Amino acid sequence: MRTASNIARHELIGLEIEVVAAKNKSLVGRKGVILDETRDTLKIKEKTKEITMMKNAIVFRTQVGGNTVEIDGSCLAGRPEDRAKGKK
Hints:
Layout lengths: L15 E7 L8 E7 L3 E5 L4 E5 L3 E7 L2 E6 L7 H6 L3
Antiparallel strand pairs: 1-2, 1-5, 2-3, 3-4, 5-6
């Protein structure tokens, strides 16, 4: 079960996110659903297009278990499957 305290160890695909801070200021305020995750990127689907962002360049907000959580993408660095297994 995903919770605010263990979100970094879980699958992110399907989460609705909003970028709240980014090195590239044009990404701030972007909202969408995470479609895919690689070692270094997140791909989100906005209303009409897909956007790929570098994890280490964004901070995003999401809802987990009824709580709002802000996640620094640099904490998610690495392959998703290794992060889920705790191999960081």
